[in-house]
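Checklist before submission:
- one chain only
- standard amino acids only
- sequence pasted in full

Submission:
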Amino acid sequence: MRALRVSPTEIVVLRGLFEESFLIECSNVRECDEIIEALRSGKSHPRLGFLLKVEVTREAEVIGEGILAKTLREALVESGVKLGGGLRVYASDSWRPSYFKRIEEEAKRFGFRYMPVFLALDLGVIGPLYEPGSPGYLCLEQQLTASTGWLFRAVRDYADREALPSNPLYLKFLAYLTALIIRRSVDELRGRAVLVDFQSFYIDVAKIYLTPLCAPEEVSSGL
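Returned file contents:
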């Protein structure tokens, strides 16, 4: 088992490359260090009790064409997840902002759960899981744009005019990582997105917040 520290307050645990993945939230840096040390040494820790119980998402519908969607379907079948029904996963080989915005509008109108997965140049994005009352793609876009500045905005504006180039190896890795998360429990990505920087091969977990700027209806209704 190997643990990858991804931020001061969250840990991603990868049990083998294509077996299972987990997100663990810890209250401070010291607790994160204690969890990592427990994983390395094989000792018990109160926050690791959930490893004894594996919950499986049994159904997921992959919507999209291209390498990412095709590989994700194969990875889900290999992991025992049934295709069709349940969670809708919109997979795109490149970043298509207007497409994901339209999906979110439909999800709000009809009340279904969905999750975006896409590759924006060298950045792989998984999530967040959207359901009524939780942040979706629009919150993700606004908060990533604010945190990464002009470069992210430039890529976003370019992406709707012309298809961005995508590395097939990045797409396949992204597909299998997505399958790991879905197999374990996609609910872990409610209010979170997994970001994979393929330049540094750094995996981060970003918290996505519900704000009046990205979801005024949900915030005003108190959901």
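Reviewer check: The helical segments are 29-41, 67-78, 97-110, 137-148, 150-159, 168-185, 216-221.
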